[in-house]
Each structure stands twice: as C-alpha cells, then as structure tokens.
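Please check this protein record:
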Amino acid sequence: MSFFNNHSHPYPTTRNTAYARNGMVATSQPLASQAGLDILKMGGNAIDAAIATAACLTVVEPTSNGIGGDAFALVWTKGELHGLNSSGRSPKNISIDAVKEAGHEEIPKHGFIPVTVPGVPAAWAELSERFGKLPLREVLEPAINYAAEGYPLSPTLSKFWNNAYKNFKANLTDDVFKHWFETFAPDGRAPETGEIWSSKGHAETLRSIAETGAESFYRGHIAEKIAAFSKENGGFLTAEDLAEHKAEWVKPINVNYRGYDVWEIPPNGQGIVALQALNILKGFNFAEKDSADTYHKQIEAIKLAFADGQTHVTEEDRMKVTSEEMLSDAYAKQRRHLIGEEAIQPEAGDPSSSGTVYLATADSEGNMVSFIQSNYMGFGSGVVVPGTGIALQNRGHNFSMESSHVNALEGGKKTYHTIIPGFLTKDNQPVGPFGVMGGFMQPQGHVQVMMNTIDFGLSPQAALDAPRWQWMKDKTVEVENRFPHHLAQLLAARGHDIKIALEPNSFGRGQIIWRDPETGVLAGGTESRTDGAVSAW
C-alpha cells in the first residue's frame, strides 16, 4: 500500500505517522489512549482496549461524549467485519402532538424533550460479552480511577468546556439544569487547563455498569434514578423505555472505491451519505489533490448525497427506499450527471427509480475496532441525573416535527444519527479502522480522508492533517484558514459561497490505524486539531 509507506508529509503538523507491531490505540485524548494500551499489555484484545478507551473518554472528554450517549462500532475479528448499532429509541409516549402541547413548535436542543435512551453502556457490555477477553470490571477500571481520583484538563478540552459553560450559564436557567453545573462547574466556573476535575458519581455509575454488565443502568437502580428524575421534570423517558433497550448487531454496508471496500453502519446512521458520495466520485478521475476541479467535484457529490440522506434516512425498516437502492451504481451515475462546472443547489433524488469521540484500536492477533460514541452537541441535553455523573444526550433533536417526513418524531423510534465509524478492507482483508467525529462533518470527513488515502496515497497522519472543507447548506462551503486561498477563489468563481473559518473546531477530529498485510505492522494517525494521541507498543 503506497499510503502505508508514504513518509512524505505535505501539510504542517506536529506529528508523524506512528508505527508499531504489538498493538495501537488512537484517540483524541492521551489519557484515554494510554488506558487502552494498558489493557492490551494486560492481555486484553483490541475490543477490550476499545471499551476501556471509550469509558475513559466519558471522563476525560465529557465535552464530547458521556455515559448517557449513543455508540456504534465496526469490529474486525477472525476474518469477519461485524457492525454494532447501540443508538437508543425515543420514549414510547412521546409524539409531535405531545411536544407541541408542551409549548414547542420545534424540538428543543436542551432539557428532557430531546432525550432518547442512552446506548453507550449497552454497547460496552455487548462488545465485552461477545468478543472481549478480560472481565468488564477490569476493562473499566482505568475510567473508574480517573473519575474517582481526577485528572488534569488538557488545553483543547479546557477550551470546549469553558465555551459550553458560558453558553449554558447564559441559556440554561431552569432548575433541571442545576445538576450539570454542580457536576461540571463545581466551583462556579469551568475547570482550567491543568486543573484537576473528578466526579465521584460518575465513578460509582461506571463501577455499577462494570459489576452488572450494564444491567443496573437499564433494569436496576440507575434506571430507577433516571426514570424518576425524568418524571419529576416532565420528561417522557421511562423505566420501561430503558429496560427495552438492546444493542443490535447489524450487517455493515459498503461500496467499492477503486479496489478498496469502504464500510459503514447502515441507517439510521448517516454513513450511507459518505458511501453515496464516494460512489458518485468513483466515476471521475482525479489527477491531483489540490486542484479546484477535485474540490469542486467532492463538494458537489457530498451535497447530493446529503440531500438524499436527509430526505430518505431514518431507522432502516421505516425507510421508503433501501440502502441498496441508494448505493446502486445506476443511481450513482444518475446523480453524477448532475455535476457540472458550476455549483448547484442540491435536491434529493428518487433512488427507487434507478458534537463526538472516535477511537481506533488494533492488536497483534489481527483484531481491529472502529468505535464512536457521542452525547451530541457537546454535553448533550444539559440534563445530568443527580448523583450519577450521567449527562443525557439530546439525539431526539434530529427528529423532524413534520408528520409526513420519513424521520418524523414518533414514540419508540430511532432518529437519523450523525455518528459513524468507518472501516477499510481490500480483497476481503482488513486495512483498518478510520473515523472523523463532528456532527454533520462526519461523512464529509470520511470522504476527504478516504480520497486522501486511496486517490492521493497519503499516510494516515498526512491524510488527517490535510486542510478540510465543509459544506454547510445550499451553496455555502466553509474552508479552514490554511486551505489554499487561490483554490478558494477558484471555487468561488464556480459559484460556491466560500467562507474562511478562523477556528478549526468544526472540521472534525479523526483517527486512523492501517495494518500492513505482509508484516502486520500498524501505522496510526491522530487528529492535529485537538489533543489526540496514538499509544502503541
């Protein structure tokens, strides 16, 4: 693989691609990466390491994820790729009418109304039960220790934490939010870089999840606390909703892109948007990466794919078109013909007629994991269950309040979901896990990282460090401030409304681990836009 051994690095960075043989963990927080590596050295496998890292991330990066969020995973083990969807359903007794009766014409971002059943603990337990080597209580021990004893904040974490605190302080004034401030701003402010933060309640919740295999969270004393707090504050979430949750094993979906198979979790996740865009783009030839024509076609393809995704994607068995129809070569050709020299206004077609943490792990046995979990929009709903450290997600915000929309709010339904893990194979052999976290940037990041890798032969770190663009809406595209200005001007001349972003925060944060098929050597890259780290041995 040329991109595996490509040592050239055309973009400014503070890191080089990391190489190792025995094991590797790549994620956005050094403490979490090291915890995963420690589990590998204790005799755990890549699945154990992924769970340990994910659990630590709920503690050491609570600005992006938590116990009260959702999770998805792609697991390569024993020659097969497995998909896990642990996104939660909306409460059974919620409805569009009920939300309107509560005084809302749109689903709010905060409070109990957008809260759906958390899927994270079930994902950890299911992965551990099916593929782990070590007991869950050992795997969660590093996270428990960090929550109980505390850890010093890293710079990027501190920045996001302070931004969230200022936003919540100004806008979340109801009593239901006071426990967020007690948990995450105990001194009346956000903790600063290098300052120690801990959460005894978080530690106790993690310990209970570890000891019961997450049973206490869904059918025990933690579930009772969540349900009682929901009822006390007019929420729709009940003990029955929690008890019925189960992580689901699903068949991953893929497209073949220039001889490589790119894999995603099927809907309700938005991974199909990345696959559809790649399916459109494979009909073009790209002579060079940094050209206006390359970027133009990438942007147009992702616009068309998003138009379809946001029109057709919801829980898979409720979709009016199938994933196979959306990913067919015939439909890709139809959409490809819409791409000309000028920027277009994207509209959905008819296929039937033709704010997250991401981590990657690998071990010496050949196991590899692509794992992602999130509360959504940073800290999520702003609701923290008293005494537990559990910040509840606000995934329900993605439902539509239009009853005719395929993703319309209904009780007991999974919504269109932004978090997506990716995996790459070639000739039925694993290349490795990849992902780019960050709301609706995620499929756009997947497309850019895959093309950087496959079309342009960049190493993992170079593929992540390359300047990124992000389609926002209509013809509006944001580019990073280090994106080549002459190319931005050429794109503007093609009709794109180009905005230069001063901060890199919204352009996603990714990780990659590739395995050399002959030597077993691992090559890993981590995000230069945050405090990421690759831990390896």
